Amino acid sequence: MERLQKVIAQAGFASRRKAEQLIIEGKVTVNGKVVKELGTKVSASDKVEVSGVPVEGQEKVYFLFYKPRGVISAVSDDKNRKVVTDYFPFVEQRIFPVGRLDYDTSGLLLLTNDGEFANLLTHPRYEIDKTYVARLNGIPQRYMLKQLASGIKLEDGKTAPAKVKEISVDKKKQRATIEITIHEGRNRQVRRMFEAIGFEVQKLKRERYAFLTLKGLNAGELRELTAHEVKQLRTLAETGMLR
What we know:
By secondary structure, the chain is α+β, with helices and mostly antiparallel strands. Helix content is 22%, strand content 30%. The protein has three domains: 2-54, Structural Genomics Hypothetical 15.5 Kd Protein In mrcA-pckA Intergenic Region, Chain A (Roll), CATH 3.10.290; 62-125 and 211-239, 2-Layer Sandwich (Alpha-Beta Plaits), CATH 3.30.70.580; 130-209, Alpha-Beta Plaits.
């Protein structure tokens, strides 16, 4: 017997967190009856459906995607804007993004149909490094960058320590390019961190996710993760170390 939300996540419908939301909203049935209790357990013989679609086991797939700017990190959009899954018409599994990148942020994004894997990588207790390169409207002083590195107060609390490095400065155009590595995943966090020290982010790109990079990819391109990379990500999330 397994918890209902775990079964839904493992089948690739959504992350476990999203699966719980689907249950609460009454979109899940077990043997034809709507179930809204998160503690419900089901067996392999039970017929589980999400919005009328049978939940069946799928082969797990894992992708690294170079998300362009102007694309939504979702599987659908009520405004008919382009979403990340539009780039995967050849994939039969119901994949979804692991975490998100803002509409106007480009860079490395993982997609999968493995809900447990996604939950492992996005859960707050697991500290996966994510490195961004930000082009700023203005040139921050070094003490300001040190504030970001030690943690800065935002409206939803103080940020965890970050790694911050100045890449380049254009005094004529009054612009700076800064690399910042964080392990949290708050909404628009990097942009808000720079806003907190008085600077607008003109352009933002996620360059690295843990040990993964965008090497060999252009915006809108993708590749499958290797079995070794998937294993390494699991190990890193669970232990904080690579083996």
